[in-house]
Every structure is written in structure tokens, then in C-alpha cells.
Amino acid sequence: MSDHGFKRVALIGLGLIGGSIAWAARRHQDRPEFIGFARSEATRETTRKLGFCDEVADTAVDAVKDADLVILCVPVGAMAAVAAEIGPHLKQGCVVSDVGSVKGAVVEALSGLPDDVHVVPAHPMAGTEHSGPESGFAELYDNRYTLVTPIEGGDPEAVARLCAFWRSLGAIVEEMELVRHDLVCAVVSHAPHLIAYTMIGVADDLSRVTESEVIKYSAAGFRDFTRIAASDPTMWRDVFLSNKTATLEILGRFTEELFALQRAVRTGDGDYLFDYFTRTRAIRQGIIDAGQDTAAPNFGRDPAPKAED
Amino acid sequence: MSDHGFKRVALIGLGLIGGSIAWAARRHQDRPEFIGFARSEATRETTRKLGFCDEVADTAVDAVKDADLVILCVPVGAMAAVAAEIGPHLKQGCVVSDVGSVKGAVVEALSGLPDDVHVVPAHPMAGTEHSGPESGFAELYDNRYTLVTPIEGGDPEAVARLCAFWRSLGAIVEEMELVRHDLVCAVVSHAPHLIAYTMIGVADDLSRVTESEVIKYSAAGFRDFTRIAASDPTMWRDVFLSNKTATLEILGRFTEELFALQRAVRTGDGDYLFDYFTRTRAIRQGIIDAGQDTAAPNFGRDPAPKAED
Questions:
Q1: How do residues A94-115 score in pLDDT, each as one tens digit?
Q2: Percent of chain A at pLDDT above 90?
Q3: What are the residues whose beta carbons fall under 8 Å from the beta carbon of B31, sequence distance 6 or more?
Q4: A162-184 burial string, b = 16+ CB within 10 Å, else e?
Q5: Which regions of chain A are under pLDDT 50?
Q6: Counting CB atoms within 10 angstroms of each CB, which of A122, A269, B121, B197 has the fewest?
Q7: CA distances (Å), B67 to each of B64, B91, B165, in order?
Q8: Does the residue B188 lie in any domain?
Q9: What is the pLDDT of residues B244-266, one digit of tens each?
Q10: What is the pLDDT of residues B185-239, one digit of tens each?
């Protein structure tokens, strides 16, 4: 048996994240059994066809009853309702985890679970702009961070087992304090997403003026924004509503900075702009040096540069 | 001879854009001769080594004197000084063009050139976040738009020849009115770049709080912003200063939208957020349908999804 010791894992929610958990685990012979549930009949049907779960249950209660690990792979806003439904049917001593991008709100949502189960929140920091049961793939978590955020007074053994489980999926696992998690994610993920959504919205309004030109000439920078603004709307609505304080704080700082740059443009302060842009360029290099992105021009989607004719 | 008829092309500026022009042309046997000049001795030396120009001149005047096409591949802010220097030495009847991202300011900068040369501004909408003489490559313009923005009272034959030249480099060429060009580019390129720069700046300030976490977890969305914020600082300083009006107008609309979304987060208006995010997702699909970007998750930089285990 793997060192996490889980034999039967219930996945509640069978989209990109849940599906990829099962696909990732299936790369090993020595793997737990997966039983899946999704609210939508169509998703359950697709999952049966794709075959990434060993069983697909028709209710969440059926899915969890014999599981020793239950992972909630549903939007943060749906977790409280799922917890209320499955709570009375959980196996004693089982571990209940999730994959939400916000942790404070998840702990709140799971606070009504019975005392004899172990809640261990986690956040795999991986994803794509695609969603649904067909979007999962085995390599999604490989060499990506999964942050585990233990709750106060939680069971250290349950935490260790969940960390081992995520490592078995290919992830780099780190523990982080809950509140810090939500602030860091507001900076690296939540605020950038909201800003990208905003820019696309502006362009959409203007496209009545510029017709299809916005799409036609999008390669000039705009298309990079559209990718992150194409992520699942339900998930992101819930992220912003449940990480409100940290998101609003970062957006406040963003607006301050934007106004300073706008003023430099308006007053023609070229030195301010040049210094600013030189500093931000260095950060890109830091990300490439840290192995967090490709150095290939345009993310490698264009043909590679040639050294010779 | 190619249908553009240019036999000797002078490139003033030998970075990503200038270098790629020469590399692209060198794919054809029937190509003009290229003579290059760059202000920096180091750039001239590197260009000689790389060999993408047939000749590298030590002064801009030497470079242009026998050329029938002169292309200014320098930042928009440097064009007036170059024009003043080369103006008296241009060959009668030659075509003078540029590659600037802003057209109104370029026309202004070139207004002092002699009456017996033909000014035809152009803007190849292609690039990467890399710069310098080593960054050019032959395929940069393939199937990318180059916008040609004729000046009032300009010579139609000179315009037609420049269009033919860009087509010979692989570009899709379209003509556009000057003022419209500057507005469209503010939407698809200039404002997105300024916003990306701003977000990176905010993260940089906060990284004193969050240490290296911003870089470590950048894959969560932030890294997409850093790519476009890694572009050449001098070029972008000049773009914002020279397309001030259109950029400030788009930023004004951006701020309005951002405040509306921020208010929805603050008041917990989930429907507003959901509807907004659903609308922006559709725009991504439009860009993919138009062939302007890849549909592969994360721009294809991660492993491809698998249909089967």
C-alpha cells in the first residue's frame, strides 16, 4: 500500500480538478479505488464513459459512505451544502479535504462536520482555462505546488497522510497557515484574474466601436488576458465572494499604482515609466529562474527563434 | 525581381523587429540587399557576427544613402532625431517607413523629411518579450498582421510597394486609417501592457511581505501578466508617451469597470460576477475561432490532456 494508506477515495465533483486527481493516481499500480459523484447527470454519464473513476455513485451519500478519504472538488460556495448532506454518512475517522482556492471560507463551510472525522483543507495550485469532466489529465499536478493548510487542533497524522496522497499525484506539497494562504493567493491569482476579467470586459464594450478588430489584432497582448479570463465562472464568482477582504485589499493597492502610472503618462514622466518597466522585467526573469514558466518567446506558441538563416 | 522592387533596404535599429525583417527576407533567393545600422557599437558587432545584414554601417547616414527603402526600427521617441540626421542624405524618391506601435506621433516625427521621399508608416503587430539583435527570427511576421497607415496625400504606388514588401516577409497586410490605428492598439495592446506592468509592480511591493512566495506560486495566473510586462522598457515608455490620449481614454474605462466589479465583490453580488465572467469567457472562444491563439490549456506549455489512462 502507498504510504498515505487511503484505500477508497470519494471525489465529490468531477471537473478538471477532480478528474485530474483520478487520472494522476491511475498512473500507479498501487492506487486507491476512486468513487465519484457529480450533481449533474450528464457529468456522471461522461465520467462513466471516460472511465477515470472505478465507480460513479448517484448520490453524494453513496459516494462517501465507505471512503477513508473524501475530497470536495466543488466550487467554494457549494461546500457548505455538500458538507451538510454528507456529514451524517461519513465513515468514522475518515479524512475530509477539498481543493478550494480560498481556505478561510472552506474551514467555515466544513465546521459542521462530525467530530470523529479529520478535516484537512488543501489547495492544488494548478489548473487550466478549461473545465468539465473531459478537461482532466494525469499530469496536471506534476511539479506544481499543492498547499495544505492544517486547521487549529487538527490531527497531525491526517495532515501527513493527505500530504503523502498529493505527493503520490506528482505534486510538490507545502504546508501554509490559512490566513497567509488567502493573502498570497489574492496576489498571485485572485487579483490578476479579476483584472483580466475587467480588461476583457472593457474590450467587449469597445468592440461595438472597433467591431471585430479587438479579436483580429488580439495577438498584440490582449490575448494573454483572455486566457485567464476564460476560467470557470462559477468557481471564480465563489473565489471572489469568499476571499473578499484580501482581494479588495490587493485591488486597492492596484488602483493606487495604476493611478500613479496614469499620472506619469499624462504628465509625460518618461523616467518614471522607464524605471518602473525595468523593475517589472526583472520579476519575469525571477519566475523563469525559479522554473515557474518557459523562457520561450510568447510561451513557445510561436515558432522557435533560429540562430541561423 | 520581387514585386515590391526594392533592391537595397536600410534598417535603422537592429533589435527584435529589425533583425526579424532581415531574417524573414533571407528565406527568399530573390531578396533585397540589407544594410543595417544601430547606435550601439555592441549591437553592430553582434549583427556582423550573426550575419543577418549584408553590410553593417557605422553611421545612419552611410546606411541610408543608397537605399530605396529605409525602415526605422527604433523606439518612437527616437524617430525625430534619426529623421533629422538622415533627412539630407536620403536618395531621391526612396520610401521611408517605420515599425512603431503608434502612428500619429511617428507621422509628426517624420514631418521634416524632404518632399522628394515617400513616407509610408507601418506597424507589424508581432513581437515577443525578448529584445536585442539576438532575439530576431525569420518566422516572426508569418501570418501576423502588419498595418500600413498611409499619410494624407501620400503616393499610392509607394504604399503598394511597401505592402508588397511586408507580404514578402510573410505578413498579412492591411491598410488602416491613422487615428483608428492608435485607438485599436490602445485597446488590444497599450492598455493591457500598462495594466500588466501595474499588477507586477503591486506584487513586487508586496513581495517584501510575502517574500519569494509571489514568484514561487506564480503559475496561478500571475505569470501570464509577467510575460507581457517583460517587454522592452524604452519601447513601451515611448508608446505610452506618444499614444497618450487613446491610452488614457481606455484606462479611464478600465477603472470604471474595475470599480463596478469591486463593488460587486464588496456587496456580494454573485449574479453580476457570474454574468460578467460568462461573457468574457465567450471572447476567448472568439479569439481561438479567429485563429489568433491556441486552444491548448495554458497556451500549450503544460503537457497535453490525455483522453485515456
A1: 999 999 999 999 999 999 999 9
A2: 71
A3: B2, B25, B168
A4: bbebbbbbbbebeebebebbbbb
A5: 1, 303-309
A6: A269
A7: 5, 7, 14
A8: yes
A9: 999 999 999 999 999 999 999 99
A10: 998 889 988 998 898 888 887 766 555 787 788 776 788 778 777 888 898 999 9
User: Which chain B positions have a beta carbon within 8 Å of A249's beta carbon?
Assistant: none
Structural domain of A38: 8-176
User: Do residue B299 and residue A227 have CB atoms under 8 angstroms apart?
Assistant: yes
Interface test with A, best of B213, B250, B278 (most A CBs within 10 A): B213
Same domain, B49 and B126: yes
Helix or strand (DSSP H, E) at A43: helix A41-50
Structural domain tally of chain A?
Answer: 2
Q: Are residues A22 and A157 in the same domain?
A: yes
In angstroms, the CA A201 to CA A193 distance is 12
Phi, psi of B40 (to 5 degrees): -85, 130
- When pLDDT is averaged across residues B72-76 and rounded to a whole number, the result is 95
In chain B, the residue whose alpha carbon lies closest to the alpha carbon of A131 is B297
> What is d(CA B113, CA B151) in angstroms, rounded to the nearest whole number?
13
Cross-strand pairs, B272: none
**What's the start-to-end Cα distance of chain B, in Å?**
56
What is the predicted pLDDT for the residue at B83? 98
Q: Pick from B141, B211, B216 the residue to mutate for testing the A interface (most A CBs within 10 Å).
A: B216
Q: Does A263 touch chain B (CB under 8 A)?
A: no
Task: Tell me the one-letter amino acid at A211.
Answer: E
Structure confidence at residue B175 (pLDDT): 96
Taking CA atoms, B273 is separated from A15, A78, A191, B72, B120, in Å, by: 21, 16, 14, 46, 45
| pLDDT over 70 percentage in chain B | 94
- Quote the ipTM score: 0.83
Which CATH number covers residue B238? Answer: 1.10.3660.10
- Among residues B176, B209, B242, the one where a domain terminates is B176
Within this chain, do residues B17 and B129 fall inside the same structural domain, yes or no? yes
Q: Are A176 and A148 in contact (CB under 8 A)?
A: yes
Please give the Cα distance from A308 to B43 (Å, whole number): 17
The pLDDT tens digits for A253-274 are 999 999 999 999 999 999 999 9
CATH number at residue B45: 3.40.50.720
Answer with the one of B176, B191, B222 that is the final residue of a domain: B176
Judge if A134 and A202 occupy the same domain. no
Is A308 among the domain residues?
A: no
pLDDT in the model for residue A204: 80
The reply to whether A301 falls in a domain is no
* Angle made by CA atoms B133, B136, B140, in degrees to the nearest 5: 160
Find chain B residues with C-beta within 8 A of A149's C-beta: none
pLDDT on residue B302: 54
Same domain (yes/no): B92, B43:
yes
